[in-house]
Amino acid sequence: MARTFNRLAKKQHLEELVSDNQEMMTHPSFSIKQQQHMITTIIELSEKNPYVFKGFFIEHRETKEKYDFESKDLGSDRFSFTFDLIQFANEIVPDGGSHHFEFYFSAEYFIEGEWLIKDEAISLDLFDHFDAIGLSQIEVADQQFFPYFSLRTTGFTFSMNIQIRSNRYIEEITVDQIKVKKKYIDVKGKALSAAIPINRMDTIMVSRNTGLRQVIHSNHVLDFVEKGTHLHHYDYHIRVEIDELAELLLLNDFNDDDFDLYFDIYLNGFFQPTTVKVANPSLLASQLVHRDSFVHYGQLTYTFSPLFTEEYAGLSIRVTRFNKHVYQYFKELLPIVWLLRLFHLRRKIWVIGEKPGEAHNTGYYFFKYMREQHPEKEVYYVIDPDSNEYQHVAQYGEEHLLPYKSKKHIFYLLMSQSIFTTYAPEEIYPSHTRLLKPFIRGHKIYLQSGVLGTQNVSHVLDRFSSQFEADLFLVNSKRERTIVLKDLHYLDNQIAITGLSRFDDLFDASTDLPIKRQVLIFPSDHETGLHYQNEMIDAIAEEFLAVVAKDSFKKFFERNDLTIMVCLPQSMAHWTAAFQEAGCTVTLQSDIQTIPLMKESLMMITDYAPEALDFSFLTKPVLFYQFEHDYQVAQQETNMTYGLELPGEIADNQEGLLHFLNRLAVTDFQMSSGNRHKADHLIEYRDTHARERIYEAANKFHRKFFRFGKLKQHPFMIEWSVIWEKFKKKMER
């Protein structure tokens, strides 16, 4: 018995040794060749370790059955097998259905004086080089077969009647250079595909407001293939012709709009393209967005400015439509701004805003406070006169409004002492050209739209990001201050703990409402766009709908006398009718004041909405339903240590969500002491003086530092940085 134990222990030791030395056990190459239905697999094994090749087999993932194939010894450590995929599938699963077939080989290795048999997936991790010859999806009658590499094992697999999302092979898209000229905008960058080469890349430009699509000129060139990782590195080049885009705008009578850029990438062997955003600016790339282009037509002027979106860091072309005389005023004013400011600084003008069409968040609340408590101050709010929210701020004095893109807007922005914004300051600028930034000298004071933590914002809000600028960053707690100081790299004198301006209403006991037995479902908002972005939004909405429509949840809500209020973001507005049919009361987040809604609700269910933290500050329970789906994005990483700091339980499936609901029902939906402590850790003040603290912090603030980060954005410095980075990459290669 002792010998048996020793043999088993040694075998286990040898298996661990093989696993621990995977790099030592890698092999030179493998290839998959396809001729119609015939699949030939060739592998080349390493000479470094003695081995005995045993054969090939295919494993049916669903049943774990293994099917051996006759192999050929091709000499020089090369082995192959050939089979008819359609014939094989008809024999194994004659009734069709959905299946996976994974490719393996067996070999016996000589390790530490012992021979050990090991079954190994024919995978990208195990082989240094991979070739695909004629590999493509197969369609026969009503059956479809898709070749792909498993995310679990990186092993080669054929799926049967299961659509494989080809975006798994797009490893990375980056933007490395943007140049804006009078007649065109040039975009250059890198595209990396894993294992499967790219045959074609089409660039699609899509209007965010109308959905209008335009194919624009682009090309790509293979740079090199990385050994071991199987990454194909491509250089791409996109050119946006300004005159063609301007003609499109005029023909369709466009107003302001953002045109998002996408790639339709055709991978070798896939019938349908993979759609991905042109995204991910490198540190240098985003700093190259330093000017805009413009076109005059009659009494109109269109400006074209590249920018990167917040959620996906996707590249967009922002189109701004001016009256020609306003644009001329704007251009003529810039050269004399420095002189004019000397005569207007004593006025201490404050400009406040959110986005041109918005007046319902922290910007609105701070403007309201200033007009009510400090009417003597020259305070102005930027708003689009056509916005549905214009009257929210008009009641505090129309003479204190700055109609977006008007002469008054431009003048007061340039003369301002301080600029308070809920989002990036550029959101309320008349143009996104970087040439405008040096002329806007007011202190940039960031009011924030929500408490940091539920989403990763470092790529957007970092101190040295050229997509964002803040001289004073207002936070809610010592914990949030640490995030801004350490993760976002702001200086100590650039951070003030004040609380959000809307918290005065949140904690105002005089506006408290009777708490209804109402569950508030509050999905987070997402950027809309093409294909996978809208599919992701629909997948999230569909999952929340499945929860409220499922019998087990319906019985729970009925048993606990609960009603459901669904507050949808604008990106899910088209799901309103579906939730209403499921018996829910539905509203849009943009159509309602959320603070009264939170005050009257018993509990909240969300995925990542920042408003969940506001809700937790009311010492009410929050459940985070963060289910897995095929469209997970890296932006959902957070600055928090999940489970340790988030003030609510996290469920990743319906069973877990129902379990947490039942636990809450036992306490009559009271927030646990542990989650209450976590919420307390995220807020410094539960009072009605946040706006007063913001006012005092802004009055005391003075810039006491030289902007070394902004020096890097000088075009001369940028060009030299690009040259230096390219030189270093060539040397490393």
TrEMBL record:
Pfam families: Glyphos_transf, TarS_C1
Domain TarS C-terminal as annotated: residue spans: 173-318
Membrane topology per record: Peripheral membrane protein
Keyword Cell wall biogenesis/degradation applies: no
Superkingdom of origin: Bacteria
GO molecular function: CDP-glycerol glycerophosphotransferase activity
GO CC terms of this entry: plasma membrane
Keyword Cell membrane belongs to the record: yes
Keywords in alphabetical order: Cell membrane, Membrane, Teichoic acid biosynthesis, Transferase
Subcellular location: Cell membrane
GO biological process, one term: teichoic acid biosynthetic process
Family under the similarity heading: Belongs to the CDP-glycerol glycerophosphotransferase family.
Protein name: CDP-glycerol glycerophosphotransferase, TagB/SpsB family
